[in-house]
Every structure is written in C-alpha cells, then in structure tokens.
Amino acid sequence: MEFAMDITSKTRSVRDVVYEKLKEAIIVGDYKPGFHLNERQLAEQFMISTTPLKEAMRRLEQEGLIITRPRVGSFVSNDVMVSIEEINLIRSAVEGIAARLAATKISDDEISQLEDVLKEMERYTKERNPEKTLEMNAYFHKMIAILAKNNYVYKQIEAIRSFDLGPRNKILSNPEELDRALREHQLIFKMISMRDPDGAENAVRSHIHRSTTFILNIKK
C-alpha cells in the first residue's frame, strides 16, 4: 500500500502522522486482520527511520489494533472489528452526553451557528460532494462537543475522533448513506435547537449506532 502523506507537517510530529495513517489503514480495512506490518518496508514507504514507526505501532498496540509477537513481528489484530464496535459504543455514549449538555446550554446565537453548518452539509450532500460533506459532518460533531461547554467531555471526544474519520470517509462516498446521515443530523439539530436533552442524546446515540452497524457490515 502506498501512503499519500505530508510527513513534514509543521503542526504534528512524524510519529503522530504515521500513527494516524496506519490507524486509518487498519480501520478502513486496507490492512486486514492478521496482516504482517513489516517495519522495514513501512519505514521505507514513509521514508522515515524505524524509531517514530515503532512509537506509532506501540500506540496502536495499546489500543488493541495490532499485536506484537516476540521475534516474529507485528500484525493487525484479529479483534479489530470488536475494537471498532466497542470504541463506537464509547463514542455514542460520550457524544450523546455532549448533545444532552449542548441542548441545556445552547444560546440562540449558537443555534444559528449550528444551523449554518447543517445548511452547508445539506448543500454539499445535494451536490454529492463527499469531501466537503465529510468536512461539514466532522465540524457539526465538533461544534456539539464545543457547545457542551465541558472540557472533560470535549477531550474524551477528541481522543476517540481518529477512530471515526477513516470509516466515515469511506461510507460518505455511498449516496444512500449521505442521505441517511443528513436526515439524522437534521434530527440531532432539531432536538438541540428545541433544547430537548433526552431527544438530543437519543438522536446522537441512534445515529452513531446505525452508522457503526453500516461500517461493520461493509467491512465483512
């Protein structure tokens, strides 16, 4: 697999860039369970030394995405699907709480700001522009995390965000999924703008649960 990446990013370390690229490749299924992650070959592909690569792989091992066998090598875990499902279970809970908090704290001006993001998502969905739709999708979720006005919740959401970007990028290229996701985001916005905490939390949980099921099904 060839990696298209800017390894000289000024805002992220080489280790972090490699970590994110490897994680995405595993989560979207480019690297299947059991795949041997050859350090020498990966270092050559990334055009880096093995030191940041080893650090990135240690993080992936801690997250349960790869396993390392002494004197044999590192491999994509056979439990990747379980990891994705469990991470998204956590994500649905935390983002559901964020939506609940946002619904109780949001101001009229903030409702307008969130609506503007939703309108952009609607426009790009109708234009069948998956890249821009993905951008607005991510921004919509980020805004809800910000509107929760709780630093702990925000940090937890950011910590698991990278597990979602790869799969979301893949599923949003599906026209039917674009439409489903839009309807679900419209409902989330409606519940938050109505300042309905139960409705907002349930809408977010339902959205993440359904999209996770979709991801797991297309990866089988």
UniProtKB/TrEMBL annotation:
The keyword DNA-binding applies. GO terms for molecular function: DNA binding; DNA-binding transcription factor activity. It comes from the Bacteria. Residues 12-79 form the HTH gntR-type domain. SMART domains: FCD, HTH_GNTR. PANTHER family: GLUCONATE OPERON TRANSCRIPTIONAL REPRESSOR, TRANSCRIPTIONAL REGULATOR, GNTR FAMILY. This is DNA-binding transcriptional regulator, GntR family. It comes from Pelosinus propionicus DSM 13327. The lineage of its organism: Bacteria, Bacillati, Bacillota, Negativicutes, Selenomonadales.
